[in-house]
């Protein structure tokens, strides 16, 4: 048995490490318990393909308040990919190409119709309760897109541009997309830029290391937690290896899809349990490819389910070769290490491309994530997620999957970690 701590933080992704830093810097004794043998969770910088690459979350933006505060705090900079004026898009079984202006003259009116009510639905995105959105909460992306009566060509074009965030149109709700767009002034291009453009110098690992360099929390890696017992006066956290930790409060900062593996006593409320059981539907992934030679910068899009690689972009150049970043709507659609299959898939966009090497991580089958970026099913954004952010006895939840804004992003993870630390601080300061 370990000593008793003021706070046990479970999960050392962005949400957990920021909560552990903030609370330990306020003088509380904090233990940070992580299942994997590394920090960062669904952010994971690897030295591969001759560069630092982020195999999980990586893109951030200066408009993201928590991200920017932290990058600024540690003097870490960000950089964009090379400018690409060439765009390829798969639609109606044919690859089309044009300039960025050509492509967006097609996409803009379609997306404008899709998200037309974003700001009316979420006029103050930080307070989603001010408009009754119960009707659209039930809508899936598929319901919304079907109602637009698009031609098959338009549908494929729209599918392609959304493929970087979509795994299943039927299982993902429209509300989260509208909230994200509303947060960026109703401008979907601004939202897409925040979600998919600027990388952290040195990778997300640079930020993780900087935060951890300042924490005073006691860290336990390779220690998956099995159960959490709240007796009303303190919390007992037990790892799979039988280690027991006592704390006055616990912060559970885990991916939604792993919460089913933890035993909570007493159990969370029935609504929270239903949310946990429904899970995050996204089983997408990210694949990095080193290809031979200097490829002219390009971007490519293919509709969900119609090609194994869905959103693709030249991202870096190294020693005469090109690094290409690919988003897979379905991580199971291609084996990341099958160079031949990856080459075939990329040749849809650039016919003579030659793959040198690949790097990826399958988040969908990783037992400590069991999925990709969070996207709410119809019905859970405005009700279940706010409920999860409330204290459950002495247990608080955090993580991008239950964030109030920037759901499913690094920013959302940091936001919830900071908020959970604030709530725990308030509770411990008055007890
Ligand atoms: C392929 C991919 C691309 C993405 N791209 C972007 C992007 O470009 N920009 C962006 O902002 N976001 C992106 N995201 C999302 C972003 O990475 C996540 O939303 C964010 O990192 C989640 O942080 P978190 O702390 O909430 O959860 P996590 O990072 O998942 O951290 C949870 C931690 O809990 C640990 N854990 C799990 N089970 C247990 C257990 N039983 N006991 C103890 N510990 C446990 C895990 O090992 C993990 O370290 C992407 C995600 C993926 C998968």
UniProtKB/TrEMBL annotation:
Entry EC no(s): 1.4.3.-
Organism: Talaromyces proteolyticus
Reaction catalysed by this enzyme: a secondary aliphatic amine + O2 + H2O = a primary amine + an aldehyde + H2O2
MF term (GO), any: monoamine oxidase activity
Residue stretches making up the Amine oxidase domain: 14-424
Needed cofactors: FAD
InterPro entries: Amino_oxidase, FAD/NAD-bd_sf, Flavin_amine_oxidase, Flavin_MAO
Keyword terms of this UniProt record: FAD, Flavoprotein, Oxidoreductase
Lineage of origin: Eukaryota, Fungi, Dikarya, Ascomycota, Pezizomycotina
Annotated positions binding FAD: 34-35, 225
Family assignment from sequence similarity: Belongs to the flavin monoamine oxidase family.
Name of the protein this chain belongs to: Amine oxidase
């Amino acid at each position: 048995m370990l000593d008793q701590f003021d706070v046990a933080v479970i999960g050392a992704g962005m949400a957990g490490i920021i909560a552990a830093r903030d609370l330990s810097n306020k003088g509380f004794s904090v233990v940070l318990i992580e299942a994997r043998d590394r920090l960062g969770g669904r952010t994971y910088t690897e030295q591969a393909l001759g560069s630092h690459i982020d195999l999980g979350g990586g893109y951030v933006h200066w408009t993201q308040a928590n991200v920017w505060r932290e990058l600024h705090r540690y003097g870490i900079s960000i950089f964009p990919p090379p400018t690409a004026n060439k765009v390829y898009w798969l639609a109606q079984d044919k690859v089309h190409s044009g300039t960025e202006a050509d492509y967006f003259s097609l996409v803009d009116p379609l997306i404008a119709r899709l998200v037309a009510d974003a700001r009316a639905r979420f006029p103050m995105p930080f307070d989603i309760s001010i408009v009754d959105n119960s009707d659209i909460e039930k809508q899936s992306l598929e319901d919304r897109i079907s109602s637009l009566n698009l031609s098959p060509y338009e549908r494929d074009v729209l599918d392609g541009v959304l493929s970087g965030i979509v795994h299943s149109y039927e299982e993902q709700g429209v509300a989260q997309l509208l909230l994200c767009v509303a947060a960026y002034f109703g401008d979907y291009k601004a939202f897409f830029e925040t979600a998919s453009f600027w990388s952290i110098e040195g990778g997300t690992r640079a930020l993780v290391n900087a935060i951890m360099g300042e924490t005073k929390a006691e860290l336990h890696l390779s220690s998956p937690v099995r159960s959490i017992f709240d007796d009303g006066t303190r919390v007992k956290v037990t790892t799979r290896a039988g280690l027991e930790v006592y704390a006055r409060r616990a912060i559970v900062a885990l991916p939604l899809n792993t919460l089913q593996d933890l035993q909570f006593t007493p159990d969370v409320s029935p609504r929270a349990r239903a949310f946990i059981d429904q899970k995050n539907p996204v089983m997408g992934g990210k694949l990095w490819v080193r290809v031979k030679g200097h490829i002219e910068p390009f971007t490519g899009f293919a509709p969900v389910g119609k090609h194994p690689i869905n959103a693709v972009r030249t991202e870096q150049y190294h020693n005469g070769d090109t690094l290409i970043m690919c988003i897979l709507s379905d991580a199971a659609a291609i084996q990341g290490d099958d160079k031949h299959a990856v080459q075939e898939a990329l040749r849809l966009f650039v016919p003579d491309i030659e793959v040198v090497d690949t790097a990826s991580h399958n988040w969908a089958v990783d037992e400590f994530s069991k999925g990709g970026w969070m996207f709410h099913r119809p019905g859970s954004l405005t009700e279940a997620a706010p409920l999860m952010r409330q204290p459950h006895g002495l247990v608080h939840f955090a993580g991008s999957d239950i964030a109030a804004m920037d759901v499913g992003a690094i920013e959302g993870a940091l936001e919830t970690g900071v908020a959970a630390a604030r709530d725990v601080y308030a509770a411990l300061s008055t007890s």
